[in-house]
Write a structure and sequence with these properties.
The chain is mainly beta. It is built from 3 helices and 15 strands.
């Protein structure tokens, strides 16, 4: 009588395991369907409404009066540049300013900022830290993490989390925001909701449209909700304080100049004209009027 040994079960490579194969096949099937949608990269969460806030509106360009600039680059490596600036009618700005800019790879800064963006075919993940430190017995600084994902050829959804602690003797603060961005053929709409934090909660929306190759317009609506104060002793619990604002702007691009105009619900209207004389010389004129202050 011959003893028969039980047949041994062959052990394959991890890729031949049933569970691993199922996970791999599911991932490959999901990736194929994802690629079939032809999704594009939506950009970063912080640029959710960049067409309105950074292109049409005057926020990053505004001043009052007339300004002329002349920049003369003398060297590229290291960077060395001379700048002359003349201004008229601008409060708090010197009529003439001369500046020299020098920069090299050996320059150092007192503020530490670490930022990393991971861009995929249809998503962008960002992580940013400003002045992070653990030498005082704990973690402090400002940390921002965001993720924006395209779910259809026109729609992108995302969120952003902010955590900050200024000093170890203060409590940390956290804030979470949700965002959506929809892109049409010649228009873009965005919506951002901010969860309740130390300053309350809020919601903001924007709409941008390109009317012609040279003309684009944009609108923005913001609502803020903050904890109110009761009438007795100023204690918390008096309900929510609600504040809203709306604005609209337009941008006109000419051959050698750009004109921007903006109005808002607080009674302010402003305009800015940039004129390029030659590549190194640019003249900028800006004006703003507060109608509510004028009428008082």
């Amino acid at each position: 009588m011959v003893d028969e040994k039980p047949a041994s079960i062959p052990v394959g490579w991890p890729g031949e395991n049933a569970l691993v194969s199922a996970i791999r096949n599911t991932y490959l099937s999901f990736s194929e369907r994802r690629d079939a949608l032809c999704l594009s990269n939506p950009g970063t969460f912080e640029n959710l409404n960049r067409e309105v806030s950074r292109d049409v509106y005057l926020t990053n360009f505004m001043f009052t009066g007339l300004r002329a600039e002349w920049n003369k680059p003398l060297s590229n490596n290291p960077i060395f540049q001379l700048s002359h600036q003349l201004s008229m009618g601008a409060q708090g700005i010197s009529p003439y300013t001369f500046s020299a800019l020098y920069g090299s790879s050996k320059a150092s800064q007192s503020m530490l900022s670490v930022e990393n963006d991971l861009s995929g075919k249809d998503f962008t993940a960002s992580l940013k830290g400003m002045n992070p430190s653990i030498i005082e017995g704990g973690l402090k600084g400002i940390f921002i993490a965001s993720y924006l994902q395209s779910v259809t050829p026109g729609l992108a959804l995302g969120l952003e989390a902010v955590w900050q602690r200024v000093a170890m003797n203060s409590s940390p603060e956290a804030l979470l925001s949700y965002g959506a961005r929809y892109m049409g053929s010649d228009w873009i709409a965005s919506l951002q909701m901010q969860s309740e934090g130390p300053q309350g909660s809020g919601i903001s929306s924007s709409y941008w449209r390109k009317l012609t190759d040279k003309v684009s317009v944009g609108t923005d609506l913001s609502l803020q909700f903050a904890p109110g104060l009761s009438g007795q002793g100023g204690l918390m619990g008096g309900g929510l304080q609600k504040e809203g604002s709306a604005s609209a702007g337009a941008k006109y691009e000419f051959r050698a100049s750009t004109f921007r105009a903006q109005v808002d619900s607080k009674g302010r209207s402003s305009c800015l004209l940039e004129k390029t004389i030659v590549p190194a010389v640019r003249v900028t004129f800006a004006a703003e009027m507060d109608h509510l202050k004028v009428c008082r």
